[in-house]
């Protein structure tokens, strides 16, 4: 029987969400250098055998007034890191993931965490697509031109007219729509309107732990009906009530629940590394610890096919379908 490390190293591993670009843009870290701070850099991604890493462009609320400029600067920081590191590439298609896997390189994908940089403009979306944006979380926690975020749920608001046009244009361009952070009405609207599979890049199961950012059974099942996938996140407050005691076992509990509800072909990884502050679950302190998930899944009786799907195969499937649209 294959051992966990051998299985992990033979698998395409993809992570649907991290916030590392904030530190890169601020000059706190370089991706090519192993850092004592944060949770992701190229050396640690290699140690964790991560091939596909989604780097989110998140605009802090204090920068909403100049969100477009801030996003351009973040994307520029990403492209400068690609130019500076031979083992780091921009990925805009699933074929790019495959080439990076064969070359033992890291394929970085760009996403928006919140549509603020678009400023209500579809031409801006098209230009950002040319710069490499291939995934978009429509909101962060608050309201923007596209929709209400999860912290505005009391409004009952779903997608705006611009948000509806945004869904259609993302489908046309081949940009993956991401419902993490959306208010429930917005999740409903995206799933009703999108003609392409939709993801939740970094959200857990409400039935395991009832947190505002987690998804109900009905939402999970609707994402699957759409052909999408859900990225289990490692953020301790989304895993359990006593977040100080969160560990890789809690991450595995959320994976287990989702697999039983929606199947192993619709569950993936969405760490939110570098977006959870200094906290991290025990056993998943940074990207180098990803083999612990493989070992945990094996210990719980998952077969090789299911493990490979969860580690990266499901992300690749959705990414391939949408970006080839």
Give a quick precis of the structure.
With 325 residues, this protein is α/β, with parallel strands linked by helices.
CATH topology: TIM Barrel
Shape: globular
Helices and strands, in order, run as HEHHEHEHEHEHEHEHEHHEHH
> What's the overall average pLDDT, rounded?
97
Report strand %. Answer: 5-15%
Stretches where pLDDT is under 50 for at least 5 consecutive residues are: none
Which class best fits the helix and strand makeup? alpha/beta
Q: Supply the number of structural domains.
A: 1
Cα radius of gyration in angstroms: 18 Å
The share of residues in helices is 40-55%
- The end-to-end span amounts to 39 Å
Counting H and I runs of at least 4 residues, what is the number of helices?
13
Name of the top-level CATH class: Alpha Beta
**Annotated CATH homologous superfamily:** Metal-dependent hydrolases
Largest sheet: 9 strands, parallel
Compute the number of strand runs: 9
Question: Topology of this protein?
Answer:
Elements: H1 4-9, E1 14-18, H2 21-25, H3 42-47, E2 52-58, H4 67-84, E3 88-90, H5 94-102, E4 106-113, H6 122-131, E5 133-137, H7 161-173, E6 176-178, H8 184-193, E7 198-200, H9 217-225, E8 229-232, H10 236-239, H11 248-262, E9 267-269, H12 291-299, H13 304-323
Parallel strand pairs: 1-2, 2-4, 3-4, 4-5, 5-6, 6-7, 7-8, 8-9
Helix pairs in contact: 6-7, 11-12
Task: Walk me through what this model shows.
Strands 1, 2, 3, 4, 5, 6, 7, 8 and 9 form a 9-stranded parallel sheet that branches. The protein has helices at 4-9, 21-25, 42-47, 67-84, 94-102, 122-131, 161-173, 184-193, 217-225, 236-239, 248-262, 291-299, 304-323; strands spanning 14-18, 52-58, 88-90, 106-113, 133-137, 176-178, 198-200, 229-232, 267-269. With 325 residues, the protein is of the alpha/beta class. The protein has one domain: TIM Barrel (Alpha-Beta Barrel). α6 (122-131) packs parallel to α7 (161-173) and α11 crosses α12. Helix content is 41%, strand content 13%. The longest helix is centred in the C-terminal third of the chain and has 20 residues, at 304-323.
